[in-house]
Structures are given as structure tokens and as C-alpha cells.
Amino acid sequence: MRTLGQKRAEYALEKVLAIPEGKKKDFKSFSAGAPSMILQNGFGQAIAFWLSKGTDKHIAIFDMIKNWLSYEKDDIKNSFVKKTENSADFIKELSGMDQIKYLTAQKETLALLEWVKRYANADL
């Protein structure tokens, strides 16, 4: 049986490998600072900022987080938010969470982004 950390790493690898070749360098530098941006500005604020920027790298990170926080596959059931394609619904759910669930979702996101950062830096 694999741990949640191993499954998180597998998900991050899959998403980093899906980044188009010409966009990897820009994504690499952006992903390195993503966890600090959350810690400095706040989880919801960072998510909303990335969504508002709308560039490929910002949307890629946003989508990774949105999809991971509602990921259901095999024996993983991340039920922080309902699975949705709509970004506004994701933001609404995030902002409506109680503090414990919100902080747990932030912690899970930071753990995911550490893997994303590692794989992006590995020039895969």
C-alpha cells in the first residue's frame, strides 16, 4: 500500500510532465516561489491572485491545486472541495470553509507544491 505522500508525488509528477516543453522554464521559476507566496500572502489570496493573472503558469498551478483538493482515485479521497470545473465555485467553497478545514487544505496544498517544485526543478 502506498502512502498519501507517494500518491501526492505521483500526481505532481503527472501534472509537471504535462506542462508543454516551451513553457517549462517559466513554470520552473514560478513554481519555486508558489509556496512562499501562500505563506506570505495567505492561501485564498494567492489562489485568487493566480486566477486573476490568467497566464499559463498561474492557471497550471491553480488547476493542480483545485483538482488535487477534490481528487478521487483509487483509495484517495481528498474532499476539501466538491469537484468542479468552475473556478468561481472552487473559490466560493474555499472561502466558505471553517478554519480547521481551510488550514488543512492549505497544508495539503503546500505539501503538493513541494513536489511540484522538486519535479519542475528536475527539468523533467
CATH architecture: Orthogonal Bundle
Strand count: 2
How much strand content do the residues show? Answer: under 5%
Order of helices and strands: HHHHEEHH
- SSE class: mainly alpha
The number of helices is 6
User: Structurally, how many domains make up the residues?
Assistant: 1
Show unreliable segments: none
- Helical fraction equals over 70%
Q: Overall pLDDT, averaged?
A: 90
What is the general shape? Answer: globular
Mind telling me the CATH superfamily name?
Answer: AF1862-like domain
**Sheet with most strands: strand arrangement:** 1-2
CATH class: Mainly Alpha
Main sheet properties:
2 strands, antiparallel
What key phrases describe this protein's structure?
124 residues; mainly alpha; Peroxidase, domain 1; two-stranded antiparallel ribbon; 6 helices; 71% helix
How is this structure best described in words?
There is one protein chain. By secondary structure, the protein is mainly alpha-helical. The protein has a single domain (4-121), classed as Peroxidase, domain 1 (Orthogonal Bundle). The protein has 6 helices and 2 strands. It has helices at residues 4-17, 24-41, 43-53, 56-68, 87-95, 99-121; strands spanning 72-73, 76-77. The chain has a two-stranded antiparallel sheet with strand order 1-2. A hairpin with a 2-residue loop joins strand 1 and strand 2. Helix 1 (4-17) crosses helix 6 and helix 2 crosses helix 4 (56-68). The model has no long low-confidence stretch (mean pLDDT 90).
